[in-house]
């Protein structure tokens, strides 16, 4: 697994970060807006966002004196590509097992 995907899975392994990520999936938000939705402080939200940003899952942009955070489509696409690749390999392996003849069906 590539480092970015490992970081993304680790980042999303925390329930609070997952909730923040899901909130940002609805719409971009500032730290204060996120903190109002959760039982954690603004500094804690900022730390969680730093981890999500480091994992490539969110981006931020300045708007006046605030920073607005949003889901990073490129990061999510990379994670999805990894899961799609994993899923394809798993289905291929399953198909090979299913299509093998049973021992009593083999021709001698």
Give the arrangement of secondary structure elements:
Layout lengths: L2 H10 L2 H12 L2 E2 H7 L4 H13 L3 E6 L2 E6 L1 H27 L9
Helix pairs in contact: 1-4, 2-4, 3-4
Distance between the termini: 42 Å
Radius of gyration: 20 Å
Largest sheet: 3 strands, antiparallel
- In which range does the helix fraction lie? 55-70%
Q: Runs with pLDDT <50, length 5+?
A: none
Q: Approximately what portion of the residues adopt beta-strand conformation?
A: 5-15%
| Mean model confidence by pLDDT | 88
Structure class: alpha+beta
Order of helices and strands: HHEHHEEH
Number of distinct helices: 5
Please give the order of strands in the largest beta sheet: 1-3-2
Shape: elongated
Provide a descriptive summary of the structure in words.
The protein has 108 residues and is α+β, with helices and mostly antiparallel strands. The protein is 64% helix and 13% strand. The chain has helices at residues 3-12, 15-26, 31-37, 42-54, 73-99, and strands at residues 29-30, 58-63, 66-71. A three-stranded antiparallel sheet has the order 1-3-2. A hairpin with a 2-residue loop joins strand 2 (58-63) and strand 3 (66-71). Helix 1 (3-12) runs antiparallel to helix 4, helix 2 packs across helix 4 (42-54) and helix 3 (31-37) crosses helix 4 (42-54). The chain is elongated and about 70 Å long.
């Amino acid at each position: 697994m590539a480092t970015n995907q490992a970081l993304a899975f680790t980042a999303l392994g925390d329930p609070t970060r997952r909730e923040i990520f899901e909130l940002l999936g609805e719409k971009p938000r500032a730290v204060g807006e996120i903190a109002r939705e959760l039982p954690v402080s603004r500094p804690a939200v900022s730390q969680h966002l730093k981890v999500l940003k480091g994992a490539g899952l969110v981006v931020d942009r300045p708007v006046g004196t605030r920073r607005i955070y949003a889901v990073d489509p490129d990061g999510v696409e990379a994670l999805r590509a990894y899961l799609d690749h994993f899923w394809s390999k798993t289905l291929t392996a399953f198909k090979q097992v299913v299509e093998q003849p049973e021992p009593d069906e083999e021709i001698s």
